Amino acid sequence: DYLYRHQGPKKDPGSLDDVLTLTPDLKRFIQDTVEDTVTKSLSSMRVSNPTGSKTFAEVAQGYTGSENKPIGELFPFLPSRLRDDIRCGEPADLAKESTYQAVIDLLMQQRFMRTDHLYYINTSTKPYLDGRKPNGSFFQRVAGSPQRAFPCRLVLFFNIKPQRPASGFTYGDKGQILTFGERLFSVQPLRAFTYCFLTDCFIIQFFKIPKPGLLKTYEASVPLDMARGLPILHALLNASLDDLGFDLNIPQGVPLPTRFLGEGSTCYVFQVGDDNVAKVCKDEYVHLAAQEYETLVYLHSRFGEVQSLCIPQEAQLVEHALLFRPLCHACSHSTLCSSHLGELLDTLQVVHQTHVHRDIRPSNLMLSGPHLLLVDWGYALTVGAQAVYSGTIRYASSRVLNMLHSNKDYLSETDIPIDPCDDLVSLVRSAFAIIFMDETARRKLTALGMDFEAIRIFWERTLEGKWSSAQQLALNADYAGLKAFFGNVLPAHPRYMDG
Asked: Which of 22, 133, 192, 248 is deepest in the core (most CB within 10 A)?
């Protein structure tokens, strides 16, 4: 915030580099300790700040809107008869938005919130939706669960705008709730659509927002006076969750998520409960859930007595979802230390008796308290097996990259031998990336795509001196040598503790 106010925004703030001019040390500090918060704040400013690249009105103009839809088309599930005894009070002071909020809060608590599947929260001061705060939000009610603003349980929302002229709500008003819709889809990525509404306590207008694709669209009802709109709202809040678009497409038996953690190439990851994780595989990768479950169960049964085994625990398989614990978070150059990598090398030395992970990369090295965990075992295979290649590309060993470069059929038809040394090389490259590679270098590596030869050359030129020697230790399967190497280049304990 300090840098933003003193240096100001530059062009399109697509990344930290585009917005701020930083010294290398300060940039590194921001990236490793507060990057997520800064990025979200700048993203928020981008829409709401007049000097940013988009105003709310411009957001709305980026959508194709279908206005004045008949209520029957917008809500085909509504009953034919609606209540006619619901009334709304008027704000005590038309100049203060807080009085509008008080009217709506009272209405929700006294007349609307008697359903057994939703609860209401005034979120006008709670930026829970990826930094955004609709005036009011309705969440799925779950027996025995606290009634908090869980983004993953958001069913529908609304915004209040002070009294508008007869022309109705502005593009800016609509752009703001469309932005809320975009944020909702970012935390509920499997959802297809959502409903919301705008009101000024005199008129109410309903919206249906589909998940944005190549085209961004929305449908809006005719603006209604409150006498006609409130019975519709009452029926809407009593409709089924399916009718309201609240279908997270999560298999039955998986606890309802409290937080969306991220999307990988093969799955969506959610937090469930206080310390559990649910990985929901995408349609084309549903087989990976069973493969990972079988691998984890086998490794725990075979090596469970090993102290500090750096793999997920208590795995459960529910259709195409995998549940496990503990909840982890990403590591950075300030939190990664030699004791972490030493424990992981001990784990790999044991696991490599039977299995090879094949997908070691920075995003799969996660911290849980004082321990480093290696996650995502869906591509793991038994030592000595041969199969078409699946796993990391950017951090793959030169052996794998050479084979893929010489014959791309290794990705689809031709088997490639499985070698534990490939895991160790990937670990060296991943550790180097976490410790030394800044955002520019990571973007350069990402831009290489599937150019296997270019990726190999990138690592040959990047890893020099002692890091080149570390790769040779990996190729020789020298676990003790690698532990000594990391002990020399990293502190024994984290310089900063996350959490």
From this structure: 248
